[in-house]
Amino acid sequence: MNAPLLQVEGLAREYTLPREKLTQPPPKVHALNGVSFTIEAGRSLGIVGESGSGKSTLARLVMALDQPTAGRVRLLGRDLHALPREELRQARRDIQMVFQDPYGSLDPRQTIGRIVAEPLAAQGAPRDEQHQRAADVLASVGLRASDLGKYPHEFSGGQRQRIAIARALITRPRLIVADEPVSALDVSVQAQVLNLMQDLQAEFGITYMLISHDLAVVHHLCDEVAVLREGLIVEQGPPERLFRDARHPYTRALLEAVPEPEPPRAAG
């Protein structure tokens, strides 16, 4: 049996706050308290929870953008936080991130071509390869090669998030960590972006770790859902089971917060 693509083992992260009194030790915040899960290649795991539950801290640790207080993150068997700097740089080909804000995550001073090719440039790829691959991934997300010379302000929010997804795709990663990828978009655009992510998974075999506060979003895209509360996974399972038979009170509270669709209006 093949090892999972991603293995998270006992992940913990605590932060030290400024000292309030000279005679007392500085207070600590436990953002994660021993989180463990696996994701199989080609599958999708949703991490759901309210603001402050530890979701974004988890995403940063999985991306090796922060150091854990304890625990391991293994991608393709490699402990990302134990890798030397150069090996970690090479490992980043296999893991990319899509951020929440399609307005803040794209540098307004850079062309779309430079933004999308940035991960390849960081790997030292030749410029002509960067340009060709950038054109290819833009086409994959429904944009045109002629958009490479444009700037972010020329695109809508949904188009900007497609550009962010293209940037994540360019190194042909095995895993994409998507941190609230549709929460900043209009509801009418959210389904388009989620459907695009589904199509790309089917085409390229991408594995997703999807961070969201919205159970309806993870139900749309994910094979498995882990519910995070105060830095701990309190419940995990397929979304169909969680929606039908949630066992933890916190999961049930999240489900009750999902708005019911409005019934169609009667003809006047």
From TrEMBL:
UniProt similarity note: Belongs to the ABC transporter superfamily.
Gene3D superfamilies: P-loop containing nucleotide triphosphate hydrolases (3.40.50.300)
GO BP terms, alphabetized: peptide transport; transmembrane transport
Protein's recorded name: Peptide ABC transporter ATP-binding protein
ABC transporter domain location: 6-255
Source organism (scientific name): Ramlibacter tataouinensis
Taxonomic lineage from the root: Bacteria, Pseudomonadati, Pseudomonadota, Betaproteobacteria, Burkholderiales
MF term (GO), any: ATP binding
Keyword line: ATP-binding, Cell membrane, Membrane, Nucleotide-binding, Transport
